[in-house]
Design a protein that fits this description.
Blueprint: H1 2-26, H2 41-50, H3 81-94, H4 97-108, E1 137-139, E2 153-154, E3 160-161, E4 164-179, E5 185-200, E6 206-211, E7 215-217, E8 222-228, E9 233-235, E10 242-250, H5 251-254, E11 268-279, E12 285-302, E13 305-316, E14 319-320, E15 326-327, E16 330-340, E17 345-355, E18 363-375, E19 380-392, E20 403-412, E21 420-431, E22 436-437, E23 469-482, E24 487-498, E25 506-517, E26 521-532, E27 537-548
Parallel strand pairs: 12-22
Antiparallel strand pairs: 1-4, 2-3, 4-5, 4-27, 5-6, 5-8, 6-10, 7-8, 8-9, 10-11, 11-12, 12-13, 13-16, 14-15, 16-17, 17-18, 18-19, 19-20, 20-21, 21-23, 23-24, 24-25, 25-26, 26-27
């Protein structure tokens, strides 16, 4: 009897041991205590086949596969004719970049900067991080500093504010010589100071105030604190006028208690006050001081749209019109959008200016642009294509004209370099006019290149006319980097030709040298030579020192 009991007990223990062993062997490491049945023969075969490749089996290469000899008879995708011709043209335009880079290296006695792809043969260790340059004034939380955030202040709306105050700006001083053979002959020393004070309340709310104490705005220009060598005259542009003063924030962040779980669409940005404004890369609107109210709805997506931002703008009075002349009797309304798609970023903008002054008139203007990277067989191209138009409400004036502007920008980085080759072209049909342009912005064509852009310091204007009235033209430039990008050279040629038989065409060349000095200073050297029909040779040069603090 006892023997039977012992055998029975032994069987129970043996069965428990075997069962426990099977459970331990079957359970998954991340699911302790859970037993799973053995896989079926079909699933086991599938798992065994899947184990032969990794999760990226599309790119799996069997190292034991037989060698495949090259077969010239195998058909390869050929480059389309239009693509081949287009890339041949761009490669021809980019071909001078290499000899220009060697020439710059010889002149500057500095190494041309090019990418280094091979890995170093020895360890270089941890590299030192440059110290953060301080702003002129930083209270409480510093700009891009490390450390702990303070607790902040809870305001009645439920928002948490952590106030801090920064003072920063730029100072520019330079010697200018400019003679365009059209009545402007300037030799001067000019100065400009842009000083800002920013009260940060949170990550989305701030108050910004800005002064330009060394140049003051006149009716159609700005008077800089300068000295004219030609006349021996000193000009005083000292002023305390408020150039910028606005508050911007986010409705959802100001009133977080309205949506404590952040499920509603209350994240609406807005700004109120005197502020700069630029749309369509400055082609449509380029104003540095307008009294405006803006409302922005961001993060709109779906239906192929990755992100979309829509901004409504209202400007009350004191608008500088297309001819850079002050119009105190005007209002502007506008809707501006930016949409990120899979292959492009599309901007669609429209603005209307109403003016009671018949000298300026009322008008509506629009802009449509697409910014994208185009992939060829041999290169990748950064491109921007824009179509703009303007329509007067009553009749054409210098500030309200009827016309269209077609504008394109194409750039590429040559192989084995970090340089940039750009080709910009435009065609202005009739009289395209912008709703608003600052007194220093010049015409809509300032984005074409160095030859069409004003310096924004003193009376050194654009070497070539940048108004968009019955004209076509282009610019070709080479931006070359040296000394690990701390120095750069830009060579540019360009021209414009009227399309209404006025014999007002012009062609020119420009060179810019730029060098970083320390963490705060930049030195600029500009020069140009231009020739306009029925005029002599125009020329100009300038040296500028710019400090950021």
């Amino acid at each position: 009897m006892r023997s039977n009991k012992q055998q029975f007990l032994f069987l129970i223990l043996a069965s428990a041991f075997l069962l426990y062993s099977g459970i331990v062997d079957a359970q998954a490491p991340d699911a302790p205590g859970v037993a799973s049945l053995p896989p079926s023969p079909e699933s086991a075969a599938e798992e065994q086949a899947a184990d032969q490749y990794d999760e990226f089996d599309e790119y799996y290469i069997n190292p034991y596969a037989d060698r495949v000899e090259y077969d010239p008879n195998v058909h390869h995708d050929s480059e389309p004719l239009y693509s081949k011709l287009g890339e041949m043209v761009m490669e021809a335009l980019a071909s001078p970049a290499k000899p220009l880079a060697h020439f710059g290296q010889w002149v500057l006695c500095s190494e041309h900067y090019s990418p280094e792809t091979p890995l170093d043969d020895h360890a270089i260790g941890l590299q030192p991080i440059p110290e953060r340059p301080n702003l002129l004034i930083e209270t409480n939380e510093k700009f891009l500093d490390i450390g702990f955030l303070n607790q902040g202040i809870v305001i009645p709306t439920g928002a948490v504010w952590r106030p801090s105050f920064w003072v920063f700006g730029t100072y520019r001083t330079g010697l200018n010589y400019f003679d365009n053979r059209a009545g402007t002959n300037v030799s001067e020393w000019a100065n400009r100071l842009d000083l800002f004070g920013q009260l940060n309340l949170s990550g989305t709310e701030r108050i910004l105030v800005g002064l330009r104490s060394l140049d003051k705005e006149l009716t159609a220009s700005r008077l800089f604190t300068s000295y004219e060598f030609h006349d021996g005259e000193s000009l005083d542009g000292l002023n305390a006028d408020i150039q910028t003063l606005f508050f911007e924030g986010d409705f959802g962040e100001l009133f977080p208690n309205l949506d404590p779980y952040d499920v509603h669409r209350y994240d609406i940005g807005f700004s109120v006050g005197r502020q700069p404004m630029s749309f369509q890369q400055g082609l449509l609107i380029n104003e540095d001081m307008v009294d405006a109210v803006t409302v922005t709805r961001n993060t709109i997506n779906g239906g192929g749209i990755l992100n979309m931002r829509v901004t409504g703008v209202y400007v009350e009075g004191d608008i500088n019109r297309n001819n850079n002349v002050h119009d105190p009797d005007s209002q502007m309304y506008g809707i501006f959008s930016e949409t990120d798609l899979e292959v492009s970023t599309v901007n669609a903008d429209v603005a209307t200016v109403n003016s009671s002054n018949p000298q300026f008139g009322s008008m509506t203007a629009f802009g449509l642009s697409a910014i994208q990277r185009l992939h060829g067989f041999h290169n990748t191209y950064n491109t921007s294509f824009q179509v703009l138009g303007s329509f007067p409400h009553d009749g054409e004036t210098a500030a309200s004209g009827q016309g269209e502007l077609l504008f394109s920008q194409i750039s590429l980085t040559p192989h084995h370099s970090n340089d940039l080759v750009y080709f910009n072209a435009f065609w202005a049909i009739d009289q395209f006019t912008s709703p608003a342009r600052g007194t220093l912005a010049g015409g809509p064509l300032g984005q074409v290149g160095l030859l069409f852009a004003a310096s924004g310091l003193g009376q050194y204007g654009a070497p070539l006319n940048n108004q968009a009235t019955n004209v076509a033209g282009a610019s070709l430039g080479y931006q070359l980097f040296y000394d690990k990008t701390r120095q750069q050279l830009i060579f540019e040629i360009g021209g414009r030709k009227d399309t209404n038989d006025l014999n007002d065409g012009a062609i020119g060349g420009a060179i810019r040298y730029q060098k970083a000095i320390g963490q705060h200073w930049i030195m600029l050297l500009d020069s140009f030579v231009a020739k306009q029909e029925s005029r002599g040779v125009a020329s100009g040069a300038r040296i500028e020192f710019l400090a950021k603090f």
